[in-house]
């Protein structure tokens, strides 16, 4: 065989000239600082004025071009994006964590030019149900639901489903909702491993009791924080007797946890107690009970959330709060609002999106949260 190899010729494009002229007209109008008269447009495109008119008139009818009186034609401004109305049902103003989540959602919604209706669930079944009815009546486009009582999650989800309103559930799963929140078991493991390592270093691994403060009304998912915490402790202290593990219901609140641990300490003489709780208010209530009993050195505690009050406690000299697993609620807003916009624009989203976690301790709290120090100085 001689000569160069032959190449198959590329297929010739079959362009629709009317579409080509329309595209050229749009390009010309967009490149011009001023409106363009029909005669100038026809001349530039080398078209008869009647043909140029039909093309530009069609572009006007479809919203790509607009007429500027006698001055000529110009590109039409882009259509305004529909303004969505979103409902946000906050967990409660009682907790620093939920206040931080609410603040971040409000700021993120404002940055995205969304109308946001805010209601407070007040850590209450009746308030959460009332707020759900309010959002349905308000015909919101989407709801961000942060309510704690797992028992009513199906009821709330049913209300929104019947109204055709999509939902993002924060921290507590709701049927049919996109979940955003903690990777609960993993967060518990992080805290438990550190708690066990602390006991191994400071108590030679000798632990008399493990107190786990639960939040029963929130259901099984937040409970998995404590499962992970215990597994984390046992990974370091595998010989820890299971009989030494005690579960108390602190309801995720300072006062309820204080009362539960105060009552327990009246009958317990354990000298080395590891304390884990479902959140920071609960673990701080437990620590207060140990201090009231004059036994703070008998415990070492691990929180969940690394919320403002826990960070303040970790800065206190001699604290027995040796750490708290951070959830960074101040970052929830941008991520949740981004998910909301994906849903509203009918794009696929994963069924669950998890927050990132990091262990905060008295040793690194100022490095992870340096802005706390600025706030403290400004209050002086």
Q: Which helices and strands occur, and which strands form pairs?
A:
Elements: H1 17-31, H2 38-45, H3 49-61, E1 65-67, E2 73-75, E3 85-90, H4 96-111, E4 115-120, H5 125-137, E5 142-145, H6 153-162, E6 167-170, E7 178-181, H7 184-202, E8 209-214, H8 220-236, E9 245-249, H9 254-265, E10 273-277, H10 280-292, E11 299-305, H11 308-314, E12 321-326, H12 332-344, E13 352-354, E14 358-360, H13 365-368, H14 371-379
Parallel strand pairs: 3-4, 3-5, 5-6, 6-7, 7-13, 8-9, 8-10, 10-11, 11-12
Antiparallel strand pairs: 1-2, 12-14
Helix pairs in contact: 1-3, 2-3, 4-12, 5-6, 7-8, 9-10
Question: Can you describe this structure?
Answer:
With 380 residues, the chain is an alpha/beta fold. The chain has helices spanning 17-31, 38-45, 49-61, 96-111, 125-137, 153-162, 184-202, 220-236, 254-265, 280-292, 308-314, 332-344, 365-368, 371-379, and strands at 65-67, 73-75, 85-90, 115-120, 142-145, 167-170, 178-181, 209-214, 245-249, 273-277, 299-305, 321-326, 352-354, 358-360. The strands form three sheets. The protein has a six-stranded parallel sheet, with helices on both faces. Strands 9-8-10-11-12-14 form a six-stranded mixed sheet, sandwiched between helices. Helix 4 links the parallel strand 3 and strand 4. Helix 1 (17-31) packs across helix 3 (49-61), helix 2 crosses helix 3 (49-61) and helix 5 runs parallel beside helix 6. The protein is elongated. The chain starts with 16 loop residues before the first helix and ends with a helix. Residues 1-6 have low confidence and may be disordered.
């Amino acid at each position: 065989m001689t000569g160069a190899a032959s190449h198959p010729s590329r297929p010739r494009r079959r362009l629709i000239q009317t579409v080509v002229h329309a595209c050229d007209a749009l390009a010309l109008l967009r490149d011009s600082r001023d409106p363009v008269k029909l005669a100038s447009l026809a001349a530039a495109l080398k078209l008869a004025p009647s043909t140029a008119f039909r093309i530009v008139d069609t572009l006007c009818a479809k919203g790509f071009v607009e007429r500027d009186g006698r001055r000529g034609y110009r590109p039409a401004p882009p259509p305004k994006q529909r303004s969505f109305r979103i409902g946000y049902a906050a967990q409660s103003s009682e907790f620093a964590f939920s206040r931080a989540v609410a603040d971040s959602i409000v700021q993120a919604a404002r940055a995205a030019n969304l109308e946001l209706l805010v209601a407070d669930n007040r850590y209450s079944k009746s308030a959460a149900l009332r707020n759900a009815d309010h959002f349905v009546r308000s015909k919101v486009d989407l709801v961000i639901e942060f309510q704690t009582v797992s028992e009513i999650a199906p009821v709330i989800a049913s209300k929104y489903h019947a109204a055709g309103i999509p939902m993002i559930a924060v921290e507590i799963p709701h049927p049919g909702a996109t979940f955003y929140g903690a990777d609960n078991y993993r967060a518990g493991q992080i805290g438990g491993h550190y708690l066990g390592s602390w006991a191994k270093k400071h108590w030679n691994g000798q632990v008399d009791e493990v107190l786990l403060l639960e939040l029963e009304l929130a259901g099984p998912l937040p409970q998995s924080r404590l499962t992970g915490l215990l597994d984390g402790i046992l990974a370091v202290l595998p010989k820890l007797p299971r009989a030494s593990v005690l579960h108390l219901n602190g309801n995720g609140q300072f006062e309820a946890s204080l009362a539960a641990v105060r009552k327990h300490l009246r009958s317990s003489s354990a000298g080395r107690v590891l304390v884990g709780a479902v959140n920071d208010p609960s673990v701080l209530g437990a620590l207060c009970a140990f201090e009231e009993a004059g036994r703070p050195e008998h415990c070492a505690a691990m929180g969940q959330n690394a919320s403002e009050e826990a960070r303040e406690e970790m800065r206190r000299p001699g604290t027995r709060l040796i750490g708290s697993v951070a959830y960074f609620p101040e970052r929830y807003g941008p991520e949740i609002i981004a998910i909301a916009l994906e849903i509203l624009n009918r794009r696929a989203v994963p069924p669950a999106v998890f927050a990132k976690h990091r262990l905060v301790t008295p040793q690194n709290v100022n490095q992870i949260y340096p802005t706390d120090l600025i706030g403290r100085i400004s209050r002086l």
